[in-house]
Amino acid sequence: MPKIRLATIEDFPALLALEEACYDEARRSSKWTLRNSLRSSHQEVWVRGNPIHATLVLWRHRDALRIYNVAVHPDFEGQGIGRTLLALTEERARALGAVKVTLEAAAALKDLVRWYEHHGYRIVRTRTDYYGPSKHAVRMEKLLNAGAP
Question: What is the CATH number of the domain that holds 76?
Fold first, then answer.
């Protein structure tokens, strides 16, 4: 099984390529945002594979861990990688003392929203025009049980 590790600035070109493979232009992280994520003391960027075929960007907040980005290359979809990245997120959240995990998902991607719901996330609000005009997102969260594994 490919190892999941913290990314370094040397991973930047591979992360840009992964963004292009996974997202339309409106949903991609900018070069500035991606570089900032790699350098930030409040963010964690995790990658999987060599070459990199999955990434997870987490933002640490006082009581929450936010999934800013989770991407799995289309050639690797359906292999449980997303589920593995969600498990890592919840493990990190508990280790950091967070009480919940939050994220935004494109409202139009109904299968994706249902996938998160299947993993215990619930919609808490809609964010109008989040990805651009008429491209709404849903804010989702999962409350963590501090005693759970």
Answer: 3.40.630.30
List the domain range (segments joined by +) for residue 37.
Answer: 4-143
* pTM tops 0.70: yes
Distance CA 35, CA 12 (A): 7
What is the distance of C-alpha 4 from the center of its chain? 14
- Contacts of residue 73, Cβ cutoff 8 Å, sequence gap at least 6: 18, 21, 22, 53, 54
Residue 149: inside a domain, yes or no? no
Identify whether 148 is part of a domain. no
* Chain mean pLDDT for the chain: 93
Q: How far is CA 38 from CA 72, 94, 116, in A?
A: 18, 22, 25
CA dihedral 93, 148, 110, 36 (to 10 degrees): 10
* 67: its two tokens: 């999934």
